[in-house]
Specification:
Number of strands: 2
Strand order of the largest sheet: 1-2
Order of helices and strands: HHHHHEEHHHHHHHHHHHH
Strand content: under 5%
Helix content: over 70%
Mean pLDDT: 90
Number of helices: 17
Structural class: mainly alpha
Low-confidence stretches: 1-13
Radius of gyration: 20 Å
């Protein structure tokens, strides 16, 4: 089945968690097969590997990225089983990056639970992350498609580049919005894009449809990270699943910071330089940062920017005929942005 340029026409879609539940229900057999494959490939004779890997895999993630691979393949008319292995591959890449990120960020929490590095230490977390990356590449090779291997291996390189670029811009209030967007396109959106693109590839869609699926994933991934960056300052800690204000304490330059810094007077900019560049922080600084962001509309404008990318994602979906998977993916776009409520 090839894509056709029909407009996105769908009945009212479920919102919020209901949208994600609807997607999971639609793909129930596929996601259960994917979960079985994930458990199977976490196994190792080295006991610490499945123990640590199971901790982070079972920590309650929504499996959004592998769900995107499964949904993209079904949307494009695929009826085989290759997409299940590739969805597991995408989840392993994502989980490996989480293990490495928590070490770099010195995070104590992951999805509301103690992070793997807090429980087992940095060395074990990095090495098990390497194991999961290796498992991902085994799954790519088992699939047998050089094009799939190209897409997912390229995404892995881009993710690493995005993380290093974030390290370079960290604590630097001269970071530009373009630099920030390049960071989140690399560290987050690249895997969303690859996850959806390989779904179209296994369905043997033409190049235009593959590009549309990639565009959908990229725009959705940027929107996802924009909302995450806003939630780091504005969410409830239990709902967020990590300590609120971690980005501030680590000196990360995100869009809410860029808005507040650009719109502030010199005294306010001095505050940001002291707290983020010089890392001189006291207990009252996080509430002050929140007040400055509210004063300058940083949260609302970050979410507004996320909605622009959400609209881009929906526009990319318009290339595909209307079906249940298309409606479910459109609803997921709303879910990603409505998390900020």
């Amino acid at each position: 089945m090839s894509a056709s340029a029909t407009p996105l026409v769908a009945p009212p879609a479920p919102r919020g968690e209901d949208a994600l539940s609807a997607l999971i229900s639609l793909l129930r057999d596929d996601i259960e097969a994917c979960n079985r494959l994930i458990v199977q490939h976490m196994q190792s004779d080295v006991a610490l590997i499945p123990q640590l890997a199971a901790h982070i895999v079972a920590a309650g993630g929504k499996r959004l990225r592998p769900l995107l691979t499964l949904a993209a393949a079904r949307l494009c008319g695929y009826r085989g089983e290759r997409h299940v292995g590739l969805a597991a591959c995408v989840e392993f890449i994502h989980t490996a990056t989480l293990l490495h990120d928590d070490v770099v960020d010195e995070s104590a929490l992951r999805r509301g639970q103690a992070s793997a590095n807090a429980l087992w230490g940095n060395k074990a977390s990095v090495l098990v992350g390497d194991f999961l990356f290796s498992r991902a590449f085994q799954l790519m090779v088992e699939d047998g498609s050089l094009e799939v291997l190209r897409i997912l291996s390229s995404a892995s390189v881009t993710i690493a580049e995005g993380e290093v670029l974030q390290l370079m811009t960290q604590n630097d209030t001269t970071t530009t919005e373009d630099q920030y967007l390049k960071v989140i396109e690399g560290k987050t959106a690249a895997l969303f894009a690859a996850a959806t693109e390989v779904g179209a590839v296994v369905a043997e869609q033409p190049a235009a449809a593959q590009a549309a699926m990639r565009d959908f994933g990229m725009a959705l991934g940027v929107a996802f990270q924009l909302v995450d960056d806003a939630l780091d300052y504005s969410a409830d800690q239990q709902a967020l699943g990590k300590t609120v204000g971690d980005d501030f304490r680590e000196g990360k330059i995100t869009l809410p910071v860029l808005f507040a810094f650009a719109r502030g007077d010199e005294a306010e900019r001095s505050f940001w330089r002291r707290t983020l560049e010089e890392r001189e922080q006291k207990d009252s600084d996080l509430p002050e940062a929140l007040a400055l962001m509210r004063k300058h509309g940083a949260f609302a404008d970050t979410i507004a920017r996320a909605r622009i990318y959400g609209d881009q994602a929906l526009a990319a979906l318009a290339a595909f005929p209307d079906n249940a998977e298309k409606r479910a993916l459109a609803a997921v776009v709303d879910f990603v942005i409505e998390r900020a409520r």
